[in-house]
Amino acid sequence: MRVQEQIESTLNEALAPAYLDVANESHMHSVPPNSETHFRVVAVSDAFAGQRKVARHQRIYGLLAAQLAGPVHALALQLYTPDEWQAREEQVRPSPDCLGGSKAEG
Q: Which residues face 19 on adjacent strands?
């Protein structure tokens, strides 16, 4: 199973999200083609109710510990309750351009 599919499966099972988008953004970084090292996760779930941002992130890090210990180098997280997502007008923040490695050289 691909890393992206592992992440999606784990988060779907644990959070029962109303919305989940797992994007492989490795192509935006200085990594070999077809890498699965950099991901953006947008998750909307009632499971985040009453949790601060740090607690939400810690929960995701715990759920994805195996991936973070192995192939995943970076994980951008956008985590919302359904009400917060609606207030944002269901808009995803784009990830910034990579400035590391050979991308910044030149």
A: 44
The domain that contains 32 carries what CATH number? 3.30.300.90
The packing angle between helices 3-15 and 53-63, to 10°, is: 120
| In contact, 38 and 24? CB cutoff 8 Å | yes
Task: Residue 17: name the closest of 84, 76, 67 by CA.
Answer: 84
Domain housing 59: 3-91
Report how far Cα 93 is from the mean position of its chain's Cα atoms: 12
36 neighbors 3 (Cβ within 8 angstroms): yes
pLDDT one-digit tens code per residue, 23-66: 988 767 677 676 777 899 999 999 999 999 999 999 999 999 99
